[in-house]
Specification:
Helix 1 packs across helix 2 and helix 3 packs parallel to helix 11. The strands form 3 sheets. The chain has a 7-stranded mixed sheet, sandwiched between helices. The radius of gyration is 20 Å and the shape is globular. The protein is α+β, with helices and mostly antiparallel strands. About 40% of the residues lie in helices and about 15% in strands. It has 2 domains: about 120 residues, Malate/L-lactate/L-sulpholactate dehydrogenase, four-helix barrel (Hypothetical Oxidoreductase Yiak, Chain: A, domain 1); about 170 residues, Ribosomal Protein S8, Chain: A, domain 1 (2-Layer Sandwich). The protein contains 11 helices and 12 strands.
C-alpha cells in the first residue's frame, strides 16, 4: 500500500537518511529538497526513489558527501568546473551560481561541469537561470550502466542523456523543456517496475533485443544475467541528440564518455554537463525578445484544443500544475519504493518510522 506524505515531512525523512550517510545538515537539506521538488513536479523518476541508490553509492565510495565544486579554469565567460563526485544537487547549484554571475556580468557564459554525482532533474538548473532573466541550455551525459540502445542497435550502449532548455517569458511563467533522449527516463521504469505496471509498447527491448513492455528488463538482471534497453525517442533523431549530449556533456567537459563493459555492482551515477547561459539584455535584443516570445506563446495557446486535451500547453506548464496539486494533496510513494528507502536507512544505522 502506498504512503502519502506532505512534502515537508517527506523532505525531513530523506534528510535524516542523508545525514546518517555522512552529509552535513545543510547538504542533506539541499539534496532532500531537490528530490522532493522532483516528486512535486511529477517527476517521481528523479525524486526520493533515488535515495537508496545514493546511499549505496556513498557506501561504495562513488559518491562523496560534503564535496564542493572545484574551479579548474576561470576565463570570465568560460568556466571549467569539477564536481569531485559530490552530490549533483549541491555541486550543480554551486556551478550554476557561478555561471549565472558570469552571464550577468559579461552577457553570456559557457560552463562545463565534470564528475558530478547524479544531478537529478536538470530543469531545476534551468529554473535557476530563467529566474534571473537568462536563457539556459544544458547538455548532459550519464556514466552508469548503459541503458539505452542506439538506433539500429540491440543492447544498451549509453545513458538517458538529458537535454534541457530554459527561456524566460516576460509576464508569463517560463518555458522549461527538460527531457531524456530515451523515450522515457530510466527512473520511470524503476517506478513502473516497483508499482507492478507494464509500459507503453515501443519503449523497451529485452535482453535479446526483442520488443517488450516489461520495465523489469532494465531494472533487474534477467535470467542470463543481462539487461534489456530503452529506445531513443524519435528513432534516429532522438538517438542523434543523445550522441550530441554524450559528446558535449561527456567528452567536451572532460567528464568522460561511456565505452566499457557494464558492472552492475557499481551504484554511482556520474554526470557531465555543458551549460550555455545568455542574457538577452546584454545581447541587445531584449525588447524584441520579450515581445515576440510572448506573442508566439499566446498564439499557440489561443488555438483550438484537440479532442482529449484540456488546453494547449508549453513545456513547464504540467510541472507547475502538478506542484500545486501535490503541495495540497501530498506526495504518494509506492510501497516497494518506501521499503527500499527504509532499507537504505538501516544500511546507515537509521530506523525510519513507518
Amino acid at each position: 500500500m502506498q504512503k502519502v506524505l506532505p512534502a515537508l515531512e517527506l523532505q525531513e525523512k530523506v534528510a535524516t537518511v542523508l545525514i546518517a550517510a555522512g552529509s552535513s545538515g545543510e547538504e542533506a537539506t539541499t539534496v532532500a529538497a531537490n528530490l522532493v521538488l522532483a516528486n512535486l513536479s511529477g517527476h517521481d523518476s528523479h525524486g526520493v526513489g533515488m535515495l537508496p541508490r545514493y546511499v549505496d553509492a556513498v557506501l561504495e565510495g562513488g559518491l562523496k558527501p560534503n564535496s564542493s565544486v572545484r574551479t579548474l579554469l576561470d576565463a570570465g565567460t568560460m568556466l571549467t568546473l569539477d564536481g569531485q563526485r559530490g552530490y549533483g544537487q549541491v555541486v550543480g547549484e554551486q556551478a550554476m551560481a557561478l555561471a549565472i554571475t558570469r552571464a550577468q556580468t559579461h552577457g553570456s557564459c559557457i560552463m562545463t561541469l565534470a564528475n558530478a554525482h547524479h544531478l537529478g532533474r536538470i530543469g531545476h538548473f534551468a529554473e535557476m537561470a530563467v529566474a534571473q532573466g537568462l536563457v539556459s541550455l544544458h547538455f548532459v551525459n550519464v556514466l552508469s550502466r548503459p541503458v539505452v540502445a542506439p538506433h539500429g542497435g540491440a543492447d544498451g550502449r549509453y545513458g538517458t542523456n538529458p537535454c534541457c532548455i530554459g527561456i524566460p517569458l516576460k509576464g508569463r511563467e517560463p518555458f522549461v523543456l527538460d527531457f531524456a533522449t530515451s523515450r522515457v527516463a530510466q527512473g520511470k521504469m524503476r517506478v513502473a517496475h516497483n508499482e507492478g505496471r507494464r509500459v507503453e509498447t515501443g519503449t523497451l527491448i529485452d535482453e535479446f533485443g526483442r520488443p517488450t513492455t516489461d520495465p523489469g528488463v532494465v531494472v533487474v538482471p534477467q535470467s542470463n544475467g543481462l539487461f534489456g534497453a530503452l529506445l531513443a525517442f524519435g528513432e534516429h533523431k532522438g538517438y542523434g541528440m543523445a550522441v550530441a549530449c554524450e559528446l558535449l556533456g561527456g567528452a567536451l567537459t572532460g567528464s568522460g564518455t561511456w565505452h566499457k563493459p557494464t558492472d552492475p555492482a557499481v551504484r554511482a551515477v556520474v554526470n557531465g554537463m555543458l551549460t550555455i547561459l545568455i542574457d538577452p539584455a546584454k545581447l541587445g535584443t531584449q525588447p524584441d525578445f520579450d515581445r515576440e516570445a510572448v506573442a508566439f506563446v499566446d498564439w499557440l495557446k489561443a488555438g483550438p484544443v484537440a479532442p482529449g486535451f484540456e488546453a494547449v500547453q508549453i513545456a513547464g506548464d504540467p510541472e507547475r500544475a502538478t506542484r500545486a496539486e501535490r503541495q495540497t494533496g501530498g506526495i504518494a510513494v509506492d510501497a516497494q519504493t518506501w521499503m527500499e528507502i527504509v532499507a537504505a536507512g538501516r544500511k546507515v544505522g537509521l530506523a525510519l518510522q513507518d
